[in-house]
Design a protein that fits this description.
By secondary structure, the protein is α/β, with parallel strands linked by helices. It folds into 2 domains: 93 residues, no CATH class; 303 residues, Metal-dependent hydrolases (TIM Barrel), CATH 3.20.20.140. The chain has 21 helices and 10 strands. The strands form 2 sheets. Strands 2-3-4-5-6-7-8-9 form an 8-stranded parallel β-sheet. A two-stranded antiparallel ribbon has the order 1-10. Helix 8 links the parallel strand 3 and strand 4. The two termini are 28 Å apart. The N terminus is likely disordered.
């Protein structure tokens, strides 16, 4: 079967075996998958049981029910129940019990018309030059649990099309409410990029050809501790519509990272200023290992932001560290890693909320969805110390499949009144969530909201989505590694 046929064929979970809200071990490939806690496992078990029961009560097939808002609501209600049993009640998903069977009640909590601007997206180029650096027998990403991949021939690499631009467009723009996305990059040596800027720009042009504009934006990858990257910034800015520079402070060709305040960091900042692209997206958190662990924290961010108030520092993953439990932050007694380091760094430098430091939620929110106590403290601290205008939406998809489940969960997310009062956390109102979903990112990325909304509602991609929704076919799958073995295989292939 041709890939084009597989894209719309009824092969994406016909039995409704998968939950629409995915609480699982999937990694974005930058960290080893983390096992589920007992309450996560219990929540999934409850959700599966309730989904079967509720589908029967509504007289629907399980697949039809899973694709409905009631299916998502049933799953989130089960997550609430399991978290409550585990005494994790600092936050919850605010849904009426009726939402499990009443579509209007489900959409009240999970639907929305916010402008959603995802500032961290990824895809795999199925024909890129990177394949030539692998042994002929290698089948990278072939273990991904995607129905299209599973149906592909057992030989050859045609299956990689299942993870390419068309699948990316389906997952992001057809199966989710995302309006715009920034296509980002992973760290790599200059001759081994899984996706080059040229290939990313080609994907952007595919979307542009659908008569829209600004559906996809581009980063320019630069690691100033790698020979050639600083010099190449001028070419990237001249040849491509670069919206921000993407860098990894904990990465280097020799395994050693850098700080934004050392010579390498300062040189990159100065180049960014000269080239007129004043956004620097910095991978902070989700450490790559002990060798450059210190460079993965946000300890250098406050000082860098103080020195360069005209530069926007966008912190990918917000400094989240999987080895740290996010709890209340006490100024003056920070932890060695995690979001607390970011908070203390801003305080020490005198950089207040809503200045030039932005916290981005790619992978961070998806990890927090597993634990309502950590979710309350992490989100509460980011809004409190970075500012209500400076928390940005990101999902790290396609590694987590379609970002729709992250969107639905965030719409329903609510920090408890007790934690709001005790720790000074802002209530997660619809207005605040609308800011985080997209309004906040419009400022550093210099996008006119009126123009973006106009494009999103009238271009051919929007028309394609309306046609697709007559017969939707979401897969409810994730693509990143789920076990340590899958993670190590992924890393060995340069993922």
């Amino acid at each position: 079967m041709k890939y084009e046929d597989r894209l719309t064929a009824e092969d994406r979970d016909p039995d409704g075996a998968r939950l629409p809200i995915r609480i699982d071990t999937t990694s974005n490939g930058e960290f080893s998958p983390v096992a589920l806690e007992p309450h996560n496992i219990e929540g999934n078990i409850i959700a599966h049981s309730r989904a079967t029961e509720n589908a029967r009560r509504k007289g629907e097939s399980r697949r039809s029910f899973m694709m409905s808002a009631c299916g998502a609501a049933t799953t989130l209600l089960a997550v609430n129940e399991a978290n409550a049993r585990a005494a994790k009640t600092a936050a919850h998903f605010n849904l009426s019990p009726d939402a499990a069977l009443d579509a209007d009640a489900a959409m009240e909590a999970l639907g929305g018309e916010e402008f959603i601007f995802d500032v961290q997206g990824h895809y795999v180029n199925p024909t890129g030059a990177w394949l030539g650096k692998l042994p002929e027998s290698a089948r990278p990403y072939s273990g991904m649990p995607n129905a299209c991949v599973a149906a592909a021939d057992s030989e050859g690499r045609e299956y990689l099309n299942c993870l390419g631009p068309e699948e990316f467009i389906k997952d992001v723009f057809l199966d989710s409410d995302t309006d715009m996305m920034v296509l980002s990059f992973v760290p790599s040596k200059r001759d081994a990029e899984p996706v080059t800027i040229e290939e990313a720009d080609a994907t952007r042009r595919i979307v542009d050809a659908m008569e829209g504009d600004h559906r996809l934006m581009l980063h320019g990858r630069v690691n100033p501790n790698q020979p050639g990257d600083l010099e190449d910034m001028a070419r990237l800015a001249a040849d491509f519509p670069i919206s921000a520079w993407k860098t990894y402070t904990q990465w280097g060709p020799d395994g050693n990272g850098f700080f934004m305040t050392d010579d390498a960091g300062e040189a990159m900042i100065e180049n960014a200023r000269k080239l007129g692209v004043n956004n620097i997206a910095i991978h902070k958190g989700l450490s790559f290992g002990p060798k450059s662990y210190e460079h993965s924290t946000c300890a250098d961010i406050g000082e860098a932001a103080k020195r360069h108030p005209d530069i926007n520092f966008i912190l990918y993953h917000s400094g989240l560290d999987l080895a740290v439990t996010e709890e209340e932050f006490t100024p003056g007694a920070p932890k060695e890693a995690g979001i607390d380091v970011l908070c203390q760094s801003l305080i020490d430098a005198g950089v207040g909320p809503n200045k030039n430091v932005y916290a981005e939620l790619g992978s961070t929110w998806r990890i927090l969805m597993r634990d309502m106590d950590q979710a309350a403290h992490a989100m509460g601290k980011l809004v409190k110390y970075c500012g209500e205008d400076n928390v940005l939406w990101g999902t790290d998809s396609i590694w987590y499949g379609s970002p729709q489940d992250q969107i639905q969960a965030f719409r329903a997310f609510e920090i408890s009144a007790e934690h709001q009062e005790r720790y000074g956390y802002a209530p997660m109102t619809r207005a605040l969530k609308a800011k985080i979903f997209g309004l906040n990112a419009m400022v550093p990325y210099k996008i006119s909201l009126d123009e973006a909304k106009k494009r999103a509602s009238s271009d051919a991609l929007s028309a394609r989505k309306h046609a697709y929704l007559e017969r939707p076919n979401p897969s409810f799958t994730t693509y990143g590694p789920k076990t340590r073995r899958e993670f190590l295989n992924f890393k060995s292939l340069g993922g």
